[in-house]
Specification:
The radius of gyration is 24 Å and the shape is globular. It has an 8-stranded parallel sheet with strand order 11-10-9-5-2-1-13-12. Strands 14-15-16-20-18 form a 5-stranded antiparallel sheet. It is of the alpha/beta class. The two termini are 23 Å apart. A hairpin with a 2-residue loop joins strand 15 and strand 16 (511-516). Helices cover 25% and strands 15% of the residues. The structure holds alpha-D-glucopyranose. Alpha-D-glucopyranose binds at residues 69, 72, 109, 180, 216-217, 270, 331-332.
Length: 567
């Protein structure tokens, strides 16, 4: 047990600076040996997460699902998919984690359900004009015979957003809307049943001890019921299916549900919006507590770009009083060691291509520095499973094992998101490097050669490993009071002739974080090194911070000699 476990349990604002670890259940650990990750596997590894130093786990959807989109196609929110376990196990897991000082955040997917959901099945069976269809977006087609889809909205997974149904007598019927795959019909959020049902789902999980929810595709729920085409340049709130003003009412209702508990529950939104002011509206005091900061995540490894993102992030959050979040990756995007090893290290959906040249050594170095940078910024921090091991994106998955609909809907041009979802390596050897029991089934996605060398076992005893770095980063974040102090840029402390175009430097209290993205620079005098992401360079004129390296420094107390040795 960490020393502060007991105090964290009662702190109602734990989420403001928490470290939240994302578990992609299917790929974390396979307890029963069928090749798919499950709740039993998570329970076995809870001590690992406690030792890593996380405050909470966000679980990607674990509900009953045909897994057409990795579980983001939910057939029943009140059941655990049998591949993952049972509801009783989920309840046990939440309680066991809590005993270790780790809270649970569950994923809620309000924009759509699975086509296998009882509501959608009932709607198909009931036919056009039925009340069952009003919970979705069923619509007659345009043109002669209704052969043309109602709008030309483009899917977030590329391609069209409408699929035509077949009437019971075999004739072509109405169309239904799906912003993602046809297996994920969109719900109609103007319908009172939809609102009531989701508030009830929230209570279902909050009553079982979930400390909060992650809200999937949170800006997409409400649609313009007149179904216009998307304007060429939609102004704020003018897009027919993104960020409509009416959506905030939904989250006000959810916040009220969250606040009705003795320990108020937390809402974390997946809000992809370029407009920072519109983004911040979701974080008003009666809406969500926090939302993922994808602006920071998508920026290239470039000091000016990162600095601008930090500043605009803090500026956008300040007026609503919400803490920022810092995210380097998740189950939808390219792993940081791969992304930062590329000439174009920004992230954009639809831009992934097979065979993009990557310098993994550079990427790893930068990902280590990025870990220190993101963990030193004020707000909460997200760590996607496997990033603490520095796993690269697996880019040579055989085409016949790829599962992700994004790949198929791009016509095979985009490799999709399976490369960051390859089952974790826990041990050097074994059938699946400890993902499942030895002798069990092979993992649902094959692990690449060399996976054992990046396993937890291989890294745990190695002081220079990514895992050891993450453990130190998270331990210091917990113990150093400076991480609760105000943030300020420290350009006056920039070493040598370095400029803000190459070095990011900021303080949190007496702690100074310096991240060097350019050639080596001298460290400022009068500071001790708490932690560095790579070996520092000794020099006659003082210690130097090499390229793509970050360091956490603390002002040397008066009367002490300056230390330069990393802890
Ligand atoms: C979110 C999820 C993603 C999923 C999509 C549709 O973006 O993170 O994995 O495919 O929503 O639910």
């Amino acid at each position: 047990m960490r020393e502060d476990d007991s105090t964290r349990g009662t702190d109602a604002t734990w989420w403001r600076d928490a470290v939240i670890y994302q578990v992609y259940v299917r790929s974390f650990a396979d307890g029963d040996g069928d090749g798919t990750g499950d709740l039993a596997g998570v329970r076995q590894h809870l001590p690992y997460l406690r030792d890593l130093g996380v405050d909470a786990i966000w679980f990607t959807p674990w509900y009953l699902s045909p897994l057409a989109d990795g579980g983001y196609d939910v057939a029943d929110y009140r059941e655990i998919d049998p591949q993952f376990g049972t509801l009783a196990e989920a309840e046990q897991l939440i309680a066991e984690a809590r005993d270790l000082g780790i809270r649970t955040i569950v994923d809620v997917v309000p924009n759509h359900v699975s086509a296998a959901h009882r509501w959608f099945q009932a709607a198909l069976a009931a036919g056009p004009g039925s009340p069952e269809r009003e919970r979705f977006w069923f619509h007659p087609g345009k043109g002669p015979g209704g052969d043309e889809m109602p709008t030309h909205w483009v899917s977030d997974f590329q391609g069209t957003t409408w699929t035509r149904t077949t009437n019971p007598d075999g004739t072509p019927g109405e169309w239904y809307l799906h912003l993602f795959t046809p297996e994920q019909p969109d719900l109609n959020w103007n319908h009172p049943d939809v609102r009531r049902e989701h508030e009830d789902i929230l209570r279902f999980w909050f009553d079982r001890g979930a400390a909060g929810i992650r809200i999937d595709s949170a800006a997409l729920l409400v649609k313009d019921a007149t179904l216009p085409e998307v304007p060429a340049h939609p102004g704020p709130g003018e897009h027919p299916h993104v960020d409509r003003d009416e959506i905030h009412d939904v989250y006000r209702g959810w916040r009220a549900v969250a606040e009705s508990y003795d320990e108020p529950r937390v809402l974390v939104g997946e809000v992809w919006l370029a407009d920072r002011a519109r983004f911040a509206q979701y974080l008003r005091p009666d809406e969500m507590h926090t939302a993922f900061n994808f602006d920071f995540m998508a920026r290239p490894w470039d000091a000016k770009a990162l600095r601008e993102s930090v500043q605009t992030t803090l500026d956008a959050h300040a007026p609503v009083g919400a803490p920022a979040t810092w995210v380097l990756s998740n189950h939808d995007v390219t792993r940081p060691v791969t992304r930062y090893g590329r000439e174009d290290s920004a992230f954009a959906f639809g831009a992934k291509r097979f065979g993009t040249p990557t310098d993994l050594a550079a990427g790893r170095r930068r990902a280590r520095a990025a870990a220190l940078l993101s963990a030193a910024l004020p707000g909460s921090l997200y760590v996607y499973q496997g990033d603490e091991l520095g796993l690269p994106e697996v880019e040579d998955l055989p085409l016949d094992v790829i599962n992700d609909p994004m790949h198929f809907r791009s016509g095979g041009v985009d490799p999709g998101r399976d490369g960051c979802r390859v089952p974790l390596p826990w041990t050097r050897g074994g059938t699946s490097h400890g993902f499942g029991p030895d002798g069990g089934a092979h993992p649902w996605l094959p692990q690449p050669a060399g996976w054992g060398e990046v396993s937890v076992e291989a890294q745990a005893g190695d002081d220079a490993s990514m895992l050891s770095l993450y453990r130190r980063v998270l331990a210091l974040r917990h113990t150093e009071p400076a991480f609760r102090a105000d943030f300020a840029w420290a350009d006056d402390l920039l070493p040598g002739d370095a400029t803000g175009d190459q070095v990011l430097a900021f303080t949190r209290g007496d702690l100074l974080c310096v991240v060097n993205l350019g050639p080596a620079v001298p460290l400022p005098a009068g500071y001790d090194v708490l932690l560095a992401s790579a070996d520092l360079e000794p020099g006659a004129a003082g210690t130097r911070l090499p390229t793509d390296t970050a360091a956490w420094l603390r002002r040397t107390p008066p009367g002490h000699a300056t230390g330069t040795t990393p802890a």
